[in-house]
Amino acid sequence: MSKKNKRDKGRTGVVYSTNQDYDYDYEGELEEETLSPSEQNLKVMLDKKSRGGKQVTLVEGFVGTADDLKELGKMLKSKCGVGGSAKDGEILIQGDFRAKVLEILQSEGYRAKKVGG
């Protein structure tokens, strides 16, 4: 990717408007409200791509705010006793904890299923 494309990434194209009543619509700043656990469709899978061969348990499909995602990630990490991260709608738990994470999510009322091998 050229420097020009990197620099323009995320820009909207609106530079200046002489209309005093103009109100720009910021599409990217609206966060989705968090669905209840019974409405969430979470996928629990094992992943080791782009991680130097290390295995991680990946939870995808969370719909909600970043704070709620981090809170759920923190709860899963503490119950598994390992590290990880929660961002971009995904929760990463270090190691192969698919069965334990699936059990924890279902006991909390989430609709979760195991995906992949």
UniProtKB/TrEMBL annotation:
PANTHER family attached to this UniProt entry: DENSITY-REGULATED PROTEIN (PTHR12789:SF0), DENSITY-REGULATED PROTEIN HOMOLOG (PTHR12789)
UniProt KW Ribonucleoprotein keyword: no
Similarity field: Belongs to the SUI1 family.
Domain of life: Bacteria
Protein name: Translation initiation factor 1
Pfam families in alphabetical order: SUI1
UniProt keyword annotations, A-Z: Initiation factor, Protein biosynthesis, Translation regulation
Keyword Protein biosynthesis listed: yes
Coiled-coil regions listed in the entry: none
InterPro entries referenced in this protein's UniProt entry, alphabetically: DENR/SUI1_TIF (IPR050318), SUI1 (IPR001950), SUI1_arc_bac (IPR005872), SUI1_dom_sf (IPR036877)
Annotated GO biological process: formation of translation preinitiation complex; regulation of translation; translation reinitiation
Domain SUI1: residue ranges: 43-109
GO MF annotation: an example: mRNA binding
